[in-house]
Amino acid sequence: MSSVETIDIDILRRNSGPPRNLVGxxxxxxxxxxxxxxxEPFRARQLWQWIYHRGATDFAVMTNLAKGFRExxxxxxxxxxxxVAAAQVSTDGTRKWLxxxxxxxxxxxxxxxxxxxxxxxxxxxxxxTLTCRFCHTGTQRMVRNLGTAEIIxxxxxxxxxxxxxxxxxxxxxxxxxxxxxxxxxxYNFDNVAAAMKIVMDPEGLAISRRKITLSTAGVVPMIAxxxxxxxxxxxxSLHAVTDELRDELVPLNKKYxxxxxxDACRTYPGSSNARRITFEYVMLKGVNDSPxxxxxxxxxxxxxxxxxxxxxxxxxxxxxxxxxxDAAVAAFSDIVFAAGYSAPVRMPRGRDIFAxxxxxxxxxxxxxxxAA
Length: 372
Ligand code: SAH
Prior knowledge:
single chain; alpha/beta; two-stranded parallel sheet; about 15% strand; binds S-adenosyl-L-homocysteine
């Protein structure tokens, strides 16, 4: 085949098909894409800054790129966000977005403003396979993992809504990210890790790994990788201090019981007294909230740089539990605190718009296997 023909085919291929979304590509992928497109390597770096530092959604604004090059880019590529199917604001300022992806699957993302920070709660899967008994998302049949672009897209979209481009150095409304939305992030680790690497890049969104927390129900074999590859803060959804009860509340415990889970925490890369592992504990009335439970929790945490986060149970229609009384929560917190662990009670946020922990659920269901 002559070189002329090769070029023709190349041009044809580039100009055919739907535009490719560059949002979601990591550094190496963007560099490879630009190389294939025939652009100089430094162009990939300029594009990176436009996409992830300035939040550009249109090639026309990229004034340090030649006009002709911008036009060529616009013919072949796009800079797209997930589609917002609904947006709600709670009386307490919490915002929730229902996002719809190209295949019509939906997830929710939540922004929680506080006086000194703002936290974005990001989803990692459409639905969830874990069926934790107290969690609304667990009642939704798992549909699929989110792609890297769909995960980073949640952060980009929040930044759009908050007007935070270019990435501000100080006074941000989006300072922290928690992977605590729908899904189990350690069941979709590769895409979560790729998205977090983009989020952490200092020439992009520039959110430090110290401000990112990944919450897991306890996928033990993935915990060490999480620490080694992305080094974010770890949160463990513990919720019970015996295997018997945890098997019931968090069925994943049958696969990875408490002793194995706590061992993985003991050796979590990067944890220290300055960087503790958070143990989340949902307060369920008469189920896991006794003083004896609190004392056993303290015993289990021995030797782990830990802090405890007590989460008042957030109700949802048909939930089989009730929230512990304020007195039970306070007594539990006092016991843990007296043993030397911080044990704040997580304030429910956005309950009125079903945006609080464990309340997220979208209408997506798994497609039937066959049309019949
Ligand atoms: N799959 C991950 C990410 C979900 S994070 C995990 O299990 O950690 C959501 C947090 O909210 C978890 O700690 C979860 O156990 C907790 N949660 C779920 N349902 C809840 C509810 N109804 N009320 C309070 N917290 C809940």
